[in-house]
Design goal:
Blueprint: H1 2-18, E1 22-28, E2 31-36, H2 41-54, E3 59-61, E4 64-66, E5 72-74, H3 84-101, E6 105-107, H4 112-132, E7 135-144, E8 151-161, E9 165-167, H5 169-178, H6 182-202, E10 208-213, H7 215-218, H8 223-234, E11 241-246, H9 247-252, H10 254-266, E12 270-276, H11 283-288, E13 293-296, H12 308-323, E14 327-331, H13 336-345, E15 349-351, E16 359-360, H14 361-377
Parallel strand pairs: 5-6, 8-10, 10-11, 11-12, 12-13, 13-14, 14-15
Antiparallel strand pairs: 1-2, 3-4, 7-8, 7-15, 7-16, 8-9
Helix pairs in contact: 6-8
The structure holds ligand C2E and magnesium ion (2 copies).
């Protein structure tokens, strides 16, 4: 405590000495606010450099050497904001952005505040939207290329907000991941998807359904128990549920997730690595994971027929996956030509607009029924 106070006092004094035309306030804990009067950005930048240089030398407190790392976020008046509140908020956003980018100083950039407010807005609206039924699951078919009667599906979340309109999962998933609401979404999605599988079974259709998980979900200990309970109460065979985890997420938390992944696999579920090719997994990591499917990211598939590079990557990923005993799905299959190539490369499953866009549950049911009827007629 004592040393901490002494450090803060020393830091304050050092910065204060550099501010010949300005004012220094302590904001709380280890944050200071410097109000700098300067003719232009360059002179502010000079002061910032001085501050960083000053703290290159460790502080001497009670005979102890203490290194201090200083992060600086800057907002300019009047260019960035013209009220004290907004300036402070924007300087703070710049500070956080700088920390995230691992840059020691960072200037506010136009649009960040709006983006931040939009994120706050989404995060505040989410719970209500989920309760009010503005969030739903759509389903997209996955087709086995050798046995077209063998069907699967992927559940994809859709948020239609009455005022904000359609909000894409690419925008809101990472917002609710950082707010912790993702576990709520995942549980809701698992429940909805399993009920959907039950309805399909009641209609005489047995197919699998994939649900997307976030890495955070796998850090929650009771996820396997939750899934087991749902499958049992709905009398849905575990083999019909697939869980997709993105490559980057699974690799970031591989060790911590492994236990839960194994428990899920032992329940009889299929685990799948999504967006494969966009992360940096090593073969040894891949071999350790109890997964059964690789989904090649659509960025490698969308232009497959015109890109020799993509063909090389996709073909070798398929071979590699097969060597490891994995089933391979290609996502983003939009044309017959691409499907034909994938078939030629030995890919197991295809998913994409060629077959269907993601559809609401009722429409998906109709799609499946007519797809199966057409196959029988052929
Ligand atoms: P993903 O899991 O890789 O899903 C595939 C995405 O590709 C979906 O985008 C799908 O609509 C799109 N897609 C499918 N076929 C084609 C095609 O032929 N061409 C093109 N251009 N795109 C195609 P969507 O629905 O916007 O979802 C984006 C991402 O958001 C998903 O990527 C997934 O990572 C995440 N996501 C969606 N629903 C959930 C969910 O319930 N939970 C979690 N944690 N993440 C979800
Ligand atoms: Mg997916
Ligand atoms: Mg994907």
């Amino acid at each position: 405590q004592e040393i901490g106070d002494a450090v803060l006092r020393d830091v304050g004094q050092k910065i204060n000495r550099l501010l010949t035309h300005g004012e220094l306030l302590r904001l709380g804990s280890d944050e200071f606010l410097a109000i700098i009067m300067a003719p232009d950005r360059e002179s502010v930048q000079d002061i910032i450099e001085f501050i960083h240089t000053t703290f290159k030398t460790p502080l001497q407190i009670n005979g102890i050497q203490i290194s201090v790392e200083v992060n600086i976020g800057i907002a300019a008046y009047p260019a960035d904001a013209d009220s004290a509140d907004a300036l402070l908020r924007r300087a703070n956003l710049a500070l956080n952005e700088g920390r995230a980018r691992e840059e020691r100083s960072c200037w506010y950039q136009p649009g960040w505040d709006e983006k931040h407010l939009r994120r706050l807005h989404l995060f505040r609206e989410f719970d209500h939207s989920l309760g009010a039924g503005h969030i739903s699951l759509y389903y997209q078919p996955k087709i086995n290329l050798d046995q077209p009667e063998k069907l699967g599906s992927e559940a994809l979340v859709r948020w239609h907000h009455p005022e904000l309109g359609f909000i894409s999962p690419d925008e809101f998933i990472n917002v609710i991941e950082s707010s912790g609401q993702i576990t709520q979404l995942t549980r809701w999605a698992l429940k909805t998807a399993i009920l959907h599988l039950r309805r399909l079974l009641d209609a005489g259709i047995s197919m699998s359904c994939s649900v997307n998980l976030s890495a955070l979900d796998l850090l929650v200990d009771d996820l396997p128990a939750y899934v087991a309970e749902l499958l049992q109460s709905q009398r849905v065979p575990a083999g019909q549920l697939v869980l997709e985890i993105t490559e980057s997420a699974i690799m970031r938390e591989a060790d911590k997730c492994l236990d839960n992944l194994r428990r899920l696999r032992d329940l009889g579920l299929t685990l799948s690595i999504d967006d494969f090719g966009t992360g940096y997994s090593s073969l040894s990591q891949l071999k350790k994971l109890p997964v059964a499917e690789l989904k090649i990211d659509k960025s490698f598939i969308l232009n497959l027929d015109s890109s020799a590079d993509d063909q090389l990557i996709v073909r070798s990923t398929i071979d590699l996956g097969h060597t490891l005993g994995l089933s391979i799905t290609a996502e983003g299959v939009e044309t017959e030509a691409i499907k034909a190539l994938l078939k030629q490369f030995g890919c197991d499953t295809a998913q994409g607009y060629l077959y269907s866009k993601p559809l609401p549950a009722e429409d998906f049911m109709r799609w499946v029924t007519s797809y199966l009827a057409e196959l029988r007629d052929e």
